[in-house]
Structure formats: structure tokens, C-alpha cells
Design a protein that fits this description.
Length: about 700
């Protein structure tokens, strides 16, 4: 029997939306902290650790089935000390115990379920468990009662098991293999993507399908570099990327009514999304649509990027300027309910004539395409279909009417915490959008968000913090926070050429190296040296849904080295490649963003310096071309009377002067500098401009 209590538990005092979702559970939850571990030791009880996040569908299911259930609560309260952790606030705890789970079971995911000793050493791991066993899956009650009985009879056996498991996994599972990378690793990654590419619906692999935009970014860059030797590869990689972006947009993974992308598709066609929307997915997807727009000049890519930003600025932006984390898959207890339509609902809003047009265009039928209802989509329809093209203004009018009608529905839960790392990604995306699309509103949003981070998510001593909610900033920032904010600051400089952003990027990058660099084996730890000491200090290199902090840091180091002329930063990037080289050789396609950084390192990189000592329209024209072209291995700097601070950041620029009072471009490629140019045609030719 399921029971609820109106008496809040300890989680009621937390800021995490995920923990607060469990504040009325009858389970006597503790937040992660010494109080829980002291109680477990004093009462000689094992710890039940549950890790998830607020917009996780299966976390909700397990809560409804088990954590709101009086029978389960009684077992947990009598035999265990129970701890809840928000993986988005504590990625260090999540990564450590997810490593244990994957080593012990061969898989992972959320909710993450761990049973461990009071000394935090796990002896049981899994993900979702139903209350009672079914279809060969053990039930949570069965597991809890069995472990409790073993603990009562022979707890030393479980303690010893935890000791052995911990020692083994810390020794093997957390030791990433070093090795030297060679350019062949890029070819190997490309071949793997090529083999697993879905030529019919785009994307890599079959269902479930994740967008993985950093893999698409790698393919885009790989094609551009290899094209000098084999134009067919550039054509092929371009087709792979463009088809994937088009098919994702046409599918139900994109919200055609309110915009924004869901986290992933449960089917091959991109039709059936896992309906939760994450800030990081939308940031990374905006970036790859923008880059493909730069590379191809196809309006479709621009339009999708703009729609993503419309969604984020409308629905995911706090009044103070920070960006919220996510929107749930569920509303009113049902997955996707907010997003689904029947023909009758469409006709009720639009009337018969417009309703029929919209249903025909967006695959809304009586039989439905998802549990008897419909996910609007354009699968199987060409984007230049006359039905869409000739009725474009009318369909947009229909969409807007349906959007406002949908606004009256019960909305999915919004996780309104502000995470430094994910904000860094969105700031980077908006800065790129402002530069590429010439949108001052995007720049204003990016600058407001970065100001929010410096004002609300930074201690007085300059140390970044990881999470802000309800007026409180907490948790020492992790590697991802530093790496992603540095990325954002580099993009803001490339969009504005304001030295302030470079100053801040270098300041945080220096702090990152001081706090996270492994002086013995190279690479960067997830947690700073001043962070909480867990069982082990882990490193992450896998580029999963989000690029790893190490991968982004490698790219940042290379770009900052090129901008400043500081070769120590490049040597750090090389050390990072060596620290993880063996791991990458084993499965290169799992490291798409790190391979982007390695491609930057091995390819013909370029530095462009525009010097304009008198001020002229010619400089603006040159900078405009740099902003519009897809030049992924180029960094650019601007020296003018208004940007003198850049000379302190890159002292070598003091020797650069404009020729004859005319804006002058200095272009260095592959560590060799060309004669300076002042003419526009010569400039375009020198940087390989397409227009």
C-alpha cells in the first residue's frame, strides 16, 4: 500500500529540486554528509544510496513505486541509513559510484542504486528496481531484505566484499591508460562513425539515438582537413552531418510547437523522444547547427539555431540572466502528456480548414503515432515540400496559436537551478550565435549570463562555485565548470574582441590548472585539490552526452596558446593527450570532442591579427568575414586604440602595426607568417573565404 506523509524529512532544508521532490517521502532520507555516515557507524547499518536528477523519468517511477511506499520505507528506515544525491549538483559522487556500478554490472544509468558500508565502500550496485520482482528483475524489497539479513548474520562478509571491490575498481577502473596519440586515431574514429552511420535517418547507430553533436563537429572538421587530399571524404562527412541535423529537426525529438530539442530518441527515426529537455543538449546542438550554417550557408541551419535560442531565452532564462537546467519529461504523472495532440484538439484551436492543413503537414492522425496521440513531426517530408513552402506563413500562424493553447496545459516540471558548467555551454553557443548571425540580443544574453556567474557563482577569493538556486550558491566548482566557462569566455572574445573576456579566460584557466592538474600522471581531475575527499579522485575523458572537462580543457589550452603565444599552455594540452592516449586508441569514436582538439593540434592551424591603429571600416569588414566563415582551426585577434589591453595579454602584438594607416591583417599558418595584407580580396584569399 502506498502512503504519503505531510511531515517533511531532512531533504526539506535542501536547495536541490531533485532532493526537494523527495522531501515528503516516508523514507528517512539524509542528504550526503557526515550526519548520515556517523549514524550508520553508530547504529552499525549499511547505507542505501540513491542518485538521480529532477527530470529523470525512471527516477520518478522508482519514487512512486518504492520511495512513496510505506512498506519500502519501513524496511529502509529500520535497516539502513538512506542518502539521496542530486547527480547534477554532485557529479563527483555520481561519477565515482557510476564507475562502480558499470564495473560490477556492466551497465549504468539513473536512478543509480548503491548499497555500501558506513565507510562509503559499495558492495551492491544497480539502477532502477521495481518494488516487487517482475520479468526476471529482482524487486527492491527482495534486495533490501536479503542484504539486511546478510548484514545481521555476517556483516563482516559484506564489509570485506566492499573492501575488495573498492580496492579492485580503484586500482583498475579509475586508472586511465596513457599513450602517444598519432593522426591515425582520427582516421580510425572516422571509419567507426562511417560504419555505424544510419544512411536512412541520420545519426550514429540505432535506437536509442542521442544527438551527440560533438561527434558531428568532429566529422565536419575531419572532412575539412582531409578534403585537401580527398574531396570525396569532405563530401561524405558533410552529407552525414547535414542529413543527421535535418532528420533530427524533422523528428519528434524537436518540439515543433515550442522549439528546443529533447534529450534523445527512443527509436531509429528520431520520432519518439525521451521528452525531457536539457540545457546542455540545446547549447551543443545550437553550436553544431551554427557551424554547419557557417560551412554551407544553408538557411535551414540558421533557422534551427534561432529556434533553439528562442526556446532558451523564452523558457529557460532566469530574470537575473542565468539559464535553468532542464524541463521534465512528465506532466500530470504521464510521460510526454504536455507535448501530445489529437486531431480534435488541433481543430478546437485552429478550426477545420487550418486544422486539416496543420494535421496533414505534421503527421497528426486519428490512430496517432504515440500511445493513441500524436507527436508533431515532419518525418518523410522534404523541407522544400510545396505543402510546407507555399503555406509557410499560415503554418507559422497555426503553430503560434497551438503554442498559446498549449501554454494553458499543466507544464512539465522545470528544474530552475543554475549550473555553472551548463551555463558555460549556453553562453558559448549564444556568443557564437551573436557572431555568426549578427544578433546583438544573443550577445546581450551571453554577457548577462557570464556576469551572473561572476557575481553569484564566485567566492570572494575567486573560486568558482557549481550551483545557484534560491539566492544560494554552493559546491566548489568541478573541472567541467571551469573548462566550459573558459570556452564561453573565448567565444565571447571572438565575438566582441574585448580583451576583458580573454583576461577572465586566462585567469580561470590558470586557476583550473592549479586546482585540477595531475602533476604525476597528467590530465585533470574532476574534483579540485580543495574538494571533498571521496574514495578516489577520478578523471573523466569520455565524451558522452556532454564533452568531458578534459576534452574541452584541451581545446581551450590550444586556443589560448595560439592567442597569447604562451607555449606552456600547448605543452599542457600535449600532456593531456599523452595522459589518456591509450584509452583513446582503444575506442576513438567515444572521444569526439577530444579528437576535435587533437585535430586542431595536428592540422594546419592559423592565427589572424587585424591591426587598425587609426580606426576604419576596413577592419570591420575583415572582422565580419572572420565571423561568418567556418574556420575551426583559426583564432583571431584585434588590435585597435580601444583594445590596448590585448597587448598585455599577448605582448608579441606590440610589434604589429597597420601599414599606411590602413587596417592590416597579419596571418600566420603552421607556425609560418605571411606578408601582411591590406586589400580585401587578398585577405579573403589568404584565409580561404568562400564568399
Amino acid at each position: 500500500m502506498t502512503t504519503k506523509t505531510k511531515v517533511p524529512n531532512r531533504l526539506a532544508k535542501e536547495k536541490s529540486p531533485y532532493l526537494l521532490q523527495h522531501q515528503y517521502n516516508p523514507v528517512d532520507w539524509y542528504p550526503w554528509g557526515e550526519a548520515a555516515f556517523s549514524k550508520a557507524k553508530a547504529e552499525d547499518k549499511p547505507i542505501f544510496l540513491s542518485i538521480g536528477y529532477s527530470t529523470c523519468h525512471w527516477c520518478h517511477v522508482m519514487e512512486r513505486e518504492s520511495f512513496e511506499d510505506g512498506e519500502v520505507a519501513t524496511i529502509l528506515n529500520e535497516g539502513y541509513v538512506s542518502i539521496k544525491v542530486d547527480r547534477e549538483e554532485r557529479p563527483d559522487i555520481d561519477h565515482l559510484y557510476m564507475t562502480f556500478c558499470q564495473a560490477m554490472t556492466g551497465h549504468g544509468g539513473w536512478p543509480l542504486t548503491i548499497i555500501m558500508t558506513p565507510e562509503k565502500k559499495p558492495f551492491f550496485a544497480g539502477t532502477y528496481f521495481p518494488k516487487n520482482g517482475r520479468m526476471g528483475m529482482p524487486g527492491l524489497i527482495e534486495i533490501l531484505e536479503k542484504v539486511r539479513e546478510i548484514w545481521r548474520v555476517d556483516c563482516n562478509m559484506l564489509v570485506q566484499s566492499g573492501e575488495e571491490i573498492t580496492e579492485s575498481i580503484l586500482k583498475k577502473g579509475l586508472a586511465l591508460q596513457p599513450g602517444e596519440l598519432k593522426p591515425e586515431v582520427l582516421d580510425n574514429a572516422y571509419q567507426t562513425y562511417r560504419i555505424h552511420y544510419d544512411s536512412l535517418y541520420g545519426g550514429i547507430g540505432n535506437a536509442p539515438k542521442f544527438p551527440a553533436p560533438h561527434n558531428l563537429g568532429f566529422l565536419l572538421r575531419y572532412g575539412k582537413v582531409v578534403a585537401k587530399k580527398d574531396p570525396e571524404i569532405e563530401k561524405e562527412t558533410g552529407q552525414m552531418v547535414e542529413k543527421t541535423l535535418e532528420q533530427m529537426y524533422k523528428g519528434g525529438i524537436f518540439d515543433h510547437i515550442g522549439y528546443g530539442f529533447s534529450r534523445y530518441s527512443t527509436d531509429r527515426k528520431w520520432l519518439l523522444p525521451h521528452f525531457e529537455k536539457m540545457l546542455y543538449d540545446n547549447a551543443l546542438l545550437a553550436i553544431v547547427y551554427l557551424e554547419v550554417y557557417q560551412a554551407t550557408k544553408k538557411p535551414f541551419c540558421r533557422e534551427v539555431a534561432e529556434k533553439i535560442f528562442t526556446y532558451v531565452l523564452r523558457d529557460m532564462t532566469s530574470p537575473e540572466g542565468g539559464f535553468y537546467s532542464a524541463e521534465d519529461a512528465d506532466s500530470e504523472g504521464e510521460e510526454g502528456k504536455f507535448y501530445l495532440w489529437t486531431p480534435q484538439e488541433v481543430f478546437a484551436v485552429l478550426g477545420d480548414e487550418k486544422g486539416e492543413l496543420f494535421c496533414k503537414a505534421y503527421d497528426i492522425s486519428e490512430q496517432g503515432n504515440f500511445e493513441g496521440k500524436n507527436i508533431p513531426n515532419l518525418i518523410g517530408r522534404n523541407l522544400d515540400d510545396p505543402l510546407l513552402r507555399e503555406n509557410s506563413p499560415l503554418l507559422e500562424e497555426c503553430r503560434e496559436q497551438l503554442f498559446w493553447a498549449r501554454e494553458k496545459r499543466v507544464h512539465p516540471y522545470k528544474d530552475d537551478k543554475v549550473l555553472t558548467a551548463w551555463n558555460g555551454l549556453m553562453i558559448a553557443a549564444l556568443a557564437m550565435g551573436s557572431k555568426i548571425l549578427d544578433r546583438s540580443d544573443y550577445l546581450a544574453a551571453a554577457e548577462k549570463a557570464v556576469s551572473f556567474i561572476f557575481e553569484r557563482l564566485r567566492r570572494m577569493d575567486g573560486r568558482l562555485l557549481a550551483r545557484y538556486r534560491g539566492g544560494e550558491a554552493s559546491y566548489l566548482a568541478y573541472l567541467d565548470d571551469y573548462a566550459f566557462v573558459v570556452w564561453a569566455l573565448i567565444e565571447l572574445y571572438q565575438a566582441t574582441y574585448r580583451p576583458y573576456f580573454l583576461e577572465k579566460a586566462l585567469e580561470l584557466n590558470s586557476q583550473m590548472l592549479e586546482l585540477f592538474w595531475d602533476g604525476e600522471k597528467g590530465g585533470l581531475f574532476l574534483v579540485g585539490q580543495d574538494g571533498e575527499k571521496l574514495l578516489g579522485r577520478t578523471k573523466e575523458i569520455y565524451d558522452g552526452a556532454i564533452p568531458s572537462g578534459n576534452s574541452v580543457a584541451a581545446m581551450n589550452l590550444l586556443r589560448l596558446a595560439a592567442i597569447t603565444g604562451n607555449h606552456v599552455l600547448q605543452e599542457k594540452a600535449q600532456g593531456l593527450f599523452r595522459a589518456f592516449g591509450g584509452e583513446i586508441w582503444d575506442n576513438p569514436s567515444a572521444y569526439g570532442y577530444l579528437l576535435q582538439a587533437y585535430l586542431y593540434f595536428t592540422a594546419s592551424s592559423r592565427e589572424v591579427v587585424i591591426v587598425d591603429e587609426k580606426g576604419s571600416d576596413r577592419a570591420d569588414e575583415m572582422l565580419g568575414i572572420l565571423r561568418k566563415e567556418f574556420l575551426p582551426h583559426t583564432v583571431s585577434l584585434y588590435v585597435s586604440p580601444a583594445s590596448t589591453g590585448i597587448l598585455d595579454i599577448a605582448p608579441y602584438l606590440r610589434d604589429y602595426h597597420s601599414l599606411g594607416d590602413i587596417a592590416t591583417a597579419y596571418i600566420c599558418e603552421n607556425r609560418a607568417c605571411r606578408p601582411p595584407v591590406t586589400g580585401m580580396e587578398a585577405f579573403k584569399q589568404a584565409i580561404g573565404a568562400t564568399q
